[in-house]
Amino acid sequence: MNEVMNLSYDINVITAEIKSYQQIAGQSVFEIGRRLKHVKENDLAHGEWIRWLETIDMQPRNAQQFMQIATEFEGNTKPVSHLGFKKLLYITQLPASVDKKQFIEEVHIVPTTGEEKTVEAMTTREFEAVKKALKEKDKLLQEAQQEVVQARKSEQLARKQLEEREEQEPQIIEREVVKEVPVESKEHINIINELNDDKKKLQEEVRFYKEKEKAMQKDPEDLQQERETMEYMADWSVHTLRSELRELIEQCSFSSLQIGAILAASPTIKENLRRDVSTIRTLMDRFEDTLDNTFMG
To answer: Which residues form a coiled coil (predicted)?
Structure first.
């Protein structure tokens, strides 16, 4: 009771006294952590680390946290000695990409309230919310970087395939002229047309992956916008695919005269046509499987 009577009634004095005790408490965290590290690293407990922790009434998990804090701020405890144990622990758990010294000095927006506060002014709950937001941002950044890498790989693959097609095209034309087989000249023309279509599609792929890489190189703060951009690009690609499918359907509508031509065609031509039909059927099956998996997801 006497101790209470001896306390000052000046709020400024009380505030200063509390901060002083907080610094003492903060410094004690580092000193405890240092000593725990010393015992463990030098095996002073002679293989009885867990049992020794019981003698000081400390759980292994808490001991690990103390040592983690001591390691993080070794030789530089003064700027953070006024922070409590929880905040110190949260600082050690920030993403590796965060400059912790700068983080402590800066003002941050608390996601749960929208207020701007320093680490010192935050409550433990507010700090936890800021830490969670930083981790999510770091995760999105890593995902964006991975998508950029994947986009580059896909672009390189598309370029390689395009180059291979361009190298093959003149060879096919030359073979058609040299052989001069009138019966199969139409088949060769169809092959050339197919290769031209493949070339066009590969060029579209290259352009798509370039746009994707460009979108993913924006500021991480705009990741939501980037995702919307990618969705738009995906919709555009599917729309293009639908147009091509409709065009294919129109082209495949044949007359009774063409049916008669098929019946009268040579076995080689029929076999080639059969392979084309099989290829189209496989492609359609893949489309259906993709759509089924999408709806199931």
So the answer is: 127-161, 185-219
55-66 b/e with 16+ CB inside 10 Å = b? eeeeeeeebebb
Q: Which class for 43: exposed (0-12), middle (13-18), buried (19 or more C-beta within 10 A)?
A: exposed
Cα(64)–Cα(49) distance, rounded to whole angstroms? Answer: 12
Position 69: which residue type?
I
Q: Helices (DSSP H) in the chain: which residue ranges?
A: 2-5, 11-41, 49-55, 60-72, 85-92, 100-105, 124-179, 185-216, 223-251, 256-264, 267-296
CA angle 291, 293, 297 (to 5 degrees): 120
Write down the residue that tokens 């890593």 correspond to: 142
- SS3 state at 106: coil
Q: How far apart are the first and last CA of the chain?
A: 68
**Interatomic CA distance for residues 63 and 67, integer angstroms:** 6
In this structure, what token pair is assigned to residue 89?
Answer: 């622990």
Tens digits of residue pLDDT in 148-191: 888 888 878 777 777 777 676 554 444 444 444 444 556 666 67
Q: Which residues pair with 109 in a beta bridge?
A: 116
pLDDT in tens, 21-79: 667 777 788 888 888 889 988 888 888 899 999 988 889 999 999 899 889 888 777 76
- Residue 93: its pLDDT value, please? 86
Residue 108 pairs in a beta bridge with: 117
Map out the domains of the chain as residue ranges: 1-93
Angle value at C-alpha 241, between 238 and 245, nearest 5 degrees: 140
